[in-house]
Amino acid sequence: MIRNLRRVVRGAKRRTVDLSHPSRSPLGNTVVNCVVYEDGARQSGTCPVDEAMQRVRKSGQGFVWLGLHEPSEEEFAKVAELFELHPLAVEDAVHAHQRPKLEAYGDTLFAVFKTCRYVEHQELTATSEVVDTGEVMVFTGPHFVITIRHGRHGSLGPLREGLERTPGLLAKGPSSVLHAVADHVVDDFLAVADAVQDDIDHVETAVFSEHAARAPGEAGRIYQLKRELLELRRAVAPLDRPLQALATRSLPPVDPDIRAYFRDVADHQARVTEQIAGYDALLDSILQAHLAQVTVAQNEDMRKITAWAAIVAVPTMVCGVYGMNFDHMPELRWRYGYPLTLAVITLACFVIHRGFRRNGWL
Fold it and tell me: What gap in Å lies between CA 148 and CA 32, rounded to an integer?
């Protein structure tokens, strides 16, 4: 709702975007940073985005790293024109909720990554949010890399600082940034998967506890975990083909030395995929075990009800016979008829009760 309101306000003002502003605010508050790198070193000072790009193109060395956060169509249009981005990729970059993918447009690569964050909670319930997702889009060209972030998490600030501490890798060009983003995203997948495993262990312990079959909400918690696990799978599984392409294919912006690093990221992604598949199978087993426990508990309740109904049937039958008030019933006028009837009822009930106890029905 807030995002739609922002778009309405921007449309009402009909302002134009001026790229001649300082690098931290040429597009309003959507620009996170704009930095020029040469030989793996960050160049001091700030300059507008267009001047930074002209500087790199003129020298033929280094690249520009432009970071954006949830730009609107109007804000991103000038950037797309400056960097000569393909309209289809521009449309996908502005509108979030894209599937992880890798597309090549000439000498420019467009990659979409789903970011994941584990949502901390004191107790897992049937409505708990476990996995929160966002998106990071990366345009990689010969002399530029543009990162576009959607969502409340997935900040690339620490990633940029880490890369700047390894100038040898950063000197490989924009593809080093693409690798760092992919590695960062997949590492977050591993962290989320490990955290989800703790929730699964907790649910498993609760299900196999003594009174789990009669505990309300266990099935709802298991189902909620499966839903959140599906959200994680949607972020991880489609990333297999893009990473394999980056690791094996000769793509123009990707430095050959970086491909080996992408193979390592692809290996980690495959590991997470296997973990998720294992978690899903384990949750299926836990759910089936819980349903079996519930069924057994219901059967035990039905046996107890049936046993007590059989016990109560004896006095009901005897009292029903003597309640018919026939004239010729010798026991009605017998002195010991009433005590004997009570004794027979008690003995019959005792024998039936003992039989049910021996067979485990009571």
Answer: 9
